[in-house]
Structure prediction request, 478 residues.
Amino acid sequence: MIFEEEKSWDWGPNYKEQIDADFVWSNDDLSSDESKGGHIGETNGESDDGNNDNEESPHENVTQGRERRAPLWMEDYVRGDELSEEEEAETYMVEDDIGDDPILFEEAVKHDKWRKAMDSEIKSIEKNQTWELLDLPTWAKIIGVKWIFKTKLNEKGEVNKYKARLVAKGYSQQYRIDFTEVFAYVTRMDTIRMIVALAVCKGWDIFQLDVKSAFLHRELKEDVYVHQPEGYVKKGKEPKVYKLHKALYGLKQALNAWFSRIESQFVKEGFQKCPNEQTLFIKRSTGGNILVVSIYVDDLIYTGDDKGMMVEFKRSMMEAFDMSDLGKMRFFLGIEILQKPKGIFICQRKYATDILKFTMSESKPVNSPVVPGFKINRDVNGIVVNDTYFKQIVGSLMYLTATRPDIMFSVSLISRYMSKPTELHLQAAKRILRYLKGTTNYGIFYKKGGEKTCLLLRILIMQEMKKILKAHQVMIFY
Prediction:
C-alpha cells in the first residue's frame, strides 16, 4: 500500500456516485447538525455559522452512521419506542396549559379553587388536633408559617386537585430548643427496582397508597409555637398563637416524627424490618405467603402473593391513617410504571421532558450521548461558566439514570468537573441533553418469566429472607 500524502481525492462533478460505488452507508439516522460536523471537540475547519469549506470524508460518515450493537449486559433492556400506540398513551405526558402556581397568599386568595384548597388544609389540621390556640409564654420563641400552593396532576397529565399546604418556617428553629433529631430513612432507588424485578419474576402486581397530611400523625416532644396562618386569624384573638401538638410540614423534626409513627404501625401489624434497608418491611403468613412493603415519606408501594393479605393491609392502614388508594402503581417518585402482561416497563419520560423544558427545549437531537473518541479533561485554561447552572443539569441527569443506564457513563464523566466547570464541560452536558431530546421514551423493561434472568435476584432475596426469618424466630423464642 502506498500513501500519496501530497494528493487529494478527485471529487469531480459526480463524487456522490463515486462514493456510493465504494462505500455502503446511510446518513438517515444522523442529525442535521451532526452531518455538518457540529460535534463537540471536532476540528474540521467549520465556522460557527455552520459553513464548511471542506466536505466531510466518507469514512467519517461510515463511522458515525454505522449501527451499533448493544452490549450483552443490556440484552434485557428494550426501548420505549417498541410500545404500542395504546401503551404509549398510558405514559404520562403533562399538559402545557396548566399555568403557574401562585407564590403569594394575596395571589391565591383571589381564586375560588385555592380558597377551597386552603379551607381543606385547615380542616385537616383541626381534624387531627394538630394545634391549640393560646397566649404565647414569655420564654417561648414563635415560628412563622406560610402557604405553599401546588397543582396536583394525575397520570394522564390532567389536573387532579389543587393542593394548599401550610408549612412552618423551620429554618428559624434552634437545635436542642425547637428540635433534636431530624434524621429519617427514605427508600433507595435500588430497592424500588428490586421490588419491580421481584414482582415480575413472581407474576405479582404492585399497588400504591398515599398518606394525606402524613406529618400530622405524630405527637411532638418539643414545645413549638407558630403564628396564626394568613386568612385564618381568629377575630378578637389576634395576639394569640398556636401551640403544636403534632408536626407541620417544614419543621425540621417532622420527617423523623412521621417515620417513627409509620414504623411503629408496621411493627404492630406484624411486619419485620429488613436490617439492610430500613424502609423495606416484610410480613409472612402462617401458610408461607409473603407481603412486601416499601415507604418513601408518605408514599407506600406493596406487593405479594396473597391478595387477602394485601386487602387486609390496605384496610388496616386506611383505618390508622387518612390515606388515598391509588390502585396499581403507575407513577412513583417521578418514575412512570406500566404493568403489562409480559412484564413491567419503567421510564422517566415526563421527568426528561421537564429537564429539556428547563434547559434546551429547542435543541436538535443526536444519536449518542457523547462524541465517539472525544476525551474530556479539566480544561484548566477554559472559559468558566455558571457552576450553579451546570450543577443543576448534572443533578437532574443523575436522577434520570435510575431508568436510563445508557447515559450512566456520560453523566458520571461530566459529574467529575462540577467544582469549576468550563464551556467544554457545559457543551458535553448539553450533548447529553440533545441525546435525551430524541430518546425521552427510553426506559427499562423487566420481562416476565425466564429462570436464568431471575436466578441471581432470587438468590439475593432468599439470603435477605433467611436473615429476616432468623431474627423473627429469635424474637418469638424470647
User: Anything to note?
Assistant: The longest strand covers residues 159-168. Confidence is low (pLDDT under 50) at residues 18-64, 88-98, 471-478. The radius of gyration is 28 Å. Residues 289 and 306 are 6 Å apart (CA to CA).
